[in-house]
Protein: VanW family protein
Organism: Micromonospora cathayae
Amino acid sequence: MPVTLYGDKIPPADDRPTVQVTAVTWPADQTEPPPPAPAPEPPAPPTRRRGRLILAAGVVTAVLAASAGAGGYAYAGEIPRGTTVLGTELGGKSRTDAAQALRAELNRQAATFTAPVEVRVGERTAQLVPADVGLTVDVDATVAAAAEAQAAPLSRLFGSRTVSPVVTVDPARLETALASVVGPQGRKMVMPKITFSGTVPKKVHPQPSLTVDGEASAEALRAGWLTGAPVTIPLVEKHPATTAEEVDRLVAELATPAVAAPVKLTTEKGSVSIPPSAIARSLSFPVDKAGKLTPKLDVKKLRAALGGKLATIEVEPKDASMTLAAGRPKPVAGSPGQRLDDDALGRDLLAVLPKTTDRTVNAVLKPVEADLTVEDIGALGIKEKVSSFTTNFTGGLSAPRSKNIVQIAKDVDGTVVKPGETFSLNGHTGERSYQQGYHDAPVILDGKLVPGVGGGTSQFTTTLFNATYYAGLEDVEHKPHSYWFSRYPAVIESTIFYPNLDFKFRNNTPYGVMIDTSYTSSSVTVAIWSTKIYDSVKTEYSPRRNITRPKVIHLEPGPSCIATNGIDGFTQDAYRVIRKDGEVVKREKFTWTYQAEPRFVCAPKQP
C-alpha cells in the first residue's frame, strides 16, 4: 500500500506534491536476500532547513556580536583598555583625558622627574638637573604612542599593555653641560689650517677631539633616565671634515702653485701683473665649525695688496659734490667710472692659481655710476651755514705739519653726507701716506712726540669734530688726546691715527650735510651747511679737578727727539646744551681725563 514519507499532511507553507514509494520483495529462492536499498533521504522540509539556516546565521551573528562587543569594549575611548604609562591607567580615555591623567601622575611623582640624574663620562661622574638640559617626558607624544594600539589585531586587545613614556632632551644643552664633566679626559679638536708666511705655504694637520656627542649623549640619557641606574655617556672621537690627506692635496695642488709665479690680469685698457706676494695676502683657506677648509680669494685684500696698480686700468666714479659760489651752495656734477667686476675677478683668479702655465685672467671693466647725482644733492635741503669752527696753527704753510692740515682739509672739502649716513674720516681719506701728499711731522706715540707721516691731521680732526658738535650732529666715535694742548678746547677735541683711532659722526637730520673747509697761513676752518634745526648749541664746563703735574724726562739728543715744556693733567666735564623753540631739548655730558704731559728734555740728566 502507498506509504507517505512525511505523514499524511503537507505543511501549508509548501504546496509541492507528496512523494510516494511502493514496497518491493526479493525472489524466494535466494537464501540470503540482500538488504533492501535504503530509500533516498527526502529533502528536509522547508521549515527544518530554514531553521538550520537561521541557527547557523544566529551563531555567526552571535560570534560577530561578541567580537564587536569585545572590540567595542577594548576600543572604548581613543586609548585601548588595559594601556598603562608609568603605572597610570590611560585605557578607555580620550587623548585629552589621557594627557591630563598623565600630567597629574607626573606632578604626583615630581620628585622623581626633577631629581638630579647621575651620569658617568669615562672615569668621572656628575649630577645633571633635568630642567638644565631639557630632560622631560613629552606627554603629548606619549599619549600618541599609547593611541597607536588602535591598529593592533583583535587577539591582542585583551589583557594589559604597558607603553614606555616618550622622553625628550636638548642635545645642544646636554653637550654644553657635559663638557665640564669630560674635563682632562677629553682633548680639543685641532682644526686643519693653511696660511702663508710671506709666499711660503704653512699647514697644520687636523687632529680629532675626544669629547661627548650631543645626539649620542641624548640617546643614552633618554634610554637610561628612568631606570634608576647611573647613565653612562660615551666618549667619542670627532674628526674635522677636512682630513690630513686633503690638507696636503690643497697645499700641493693650490697653495704652492698659487704663489709660484705672477698672474697676468688683462683688460681692454691694458694689463696688470699680480705678484705672488699679493696673491699670498688675498688667498686664504677659512675653516668652518665642522673643520672644512674652503679656498677663498678676497678681492678687497687683493686690491689693498696691489696698492695703486689698478688705477692704471680702472676709473673711480666721482660723486656729485657741492661748492660755494657767491656765498651760496652750488651742486657740482660728478662722473661715472669703470671698475673690474670683483666677483668675476675673484672666481677667475682662483681658477688659474693651480696652473703652472697660462696664468692669465681676462677681466672685463664694468661701467659704474656715481652714488650721488646733481639731482640727488639738489633735493637734500643744503641751503645755509649751520655751524663753523676754526683752530690756529703756527709755522706758516711751508711747515710739514701745516701742509698735512691743508691736505686733509682739501680731501674732505665739499663732501656731502646724506640723511642717516655715518661719515668716517679714516674711511674717507684712507691711510694717509706720502703718495697722497702727506709729510712727516710730530705725532704722539707711546706718550711722546715722534716724527710720523700725517702729523697735524689731529688738528683738522678736532676742527671737524667741533663743527659737527655745534651743528648738533650725532657723535659716533672720537677720542681726545692723551695730553691737553691749549690750541684745542678741553674735552671736546679729537685725535686720529690710521687705522685704530677714527672720527665718525652721523647725520641724524632729515637734510643733507655739506662739509666746507678753508684755510689761511695760520688757521683752518670747517663749516657745516644744511638746514638749521636748533636755535643754539653751546658748551657748559665743570671746574677742572684731579690736577697732576708733569714729570721731567731726559731723552737721547738727536733728530728724533722733540722737546716739550710739559702740561698739567686734569679731569673735566663738558656739557653740550641744545635748544630748540626756546627750550633745552638735549643735554649731553662729555668727560675726559688728561695725563700730565712730561717735560721732555733732549739732553742727558746731569749728575
User: Anything to note?
Assistant: The first strand starts at residue 3 and ends at 4. Residues 1-33, 44-71 have pLDDT under 50 and may be disordered.
